[in-house]
Amino acid sequence: MKAGDGSAEAKRRAGHAAAEAVEDGTIVGLGTGSTAAYAIEAIGRAVENGLDVHGVATSAESAQLARECGIALTTLAAVDGVDLAIDGADQVADGDLIKGGGAAHTREKLIDAAADRFLVVVDDSKLTETLSWPIPVAVLQGAESVVADRLRDLGGEPTLREAERKDGPVVTDDGHLVIDCDFGEVDDPEELATALSAIPGVVEHGLFVDLADEIYVGSADGVDVLR
Ligand SMILES: O=C[C@H](O)[C@H](O)[C@H](O)COP(=O)(O)O
């Protein structure tokens, strides 16, 4: 499940601009998805030219790309902190995000929230007035039907995410299932985020409230940075 239909050029611009914020000797959170991939590739080119960084990957996908790009990897457990994280988003409204279109939001939130500075990279198709994209909710295996009932109690329409080119549901890098829950327009993201986090069996949800420090928005004209 993927959001938006932004141009590759707009994504590339956002990813490359954010990668310029990476400083020598730092620990960098490496986001997941097609836009974050442009940032990872740009960091990789900087590493080839002598930049010394260690990456903390938010998914198997970003770890693989980082290795291909020559970026040394470490883990959250092995470092004192993350200096900067660069990650994509499926929808952005008033600085809040919906993430998890690639089912990576659990590790993404852990690493993005741990970073001193969290840069979001999106193309301009992701910007909206009010968040309304179905919210990805990672759940423990076996908890999907009780969590779905609780999501309906909150006014949502839950759908278990089905895998492509595999029978059955999507299983995340950490072995969880994903329910995409449509709440329509989310007027109070913080209230909904708190309610989702309180459901037993929910591992993590894709509402990222008040976490982003800067949002790099790529478009046909260039890059705007929203703070
Ligand atoms: O789980 C996936 C992540 O949250 C991605 O960062 C998000 O889906 C955006 O991906 P893309 O840049 O490919 O639209």
From TrEMBL:
Similarity comment: family membership: Belongs to the ribose 5-phosphate isomerase family.
Function: Catalyzes the reversible conversion of ribose-5-phosphate to ribulose 5-phosphate.
Record field: catalytic activity: aldehydo-D-ribose 5-phosphate = D-ribulose 5-phosphate
One BP annotation, GO: pentose-phosphate shunt, non-oxidative branch
Pathway: Carbohydrate degradation; pentose phosphate pathway; D-ribose 5-phosphate from D-ribulose 5-phosphate (non-oxidative stage): step 1/1
Gene name of the encoded protein: rpiA
Protein name: Ribose-5-phosphate isomerase A
One MF term in the entry's GO annotations: ribose-5-phosphate isomerase activity
Domain of life: Archaea
Protein EC: 5.3.1.6
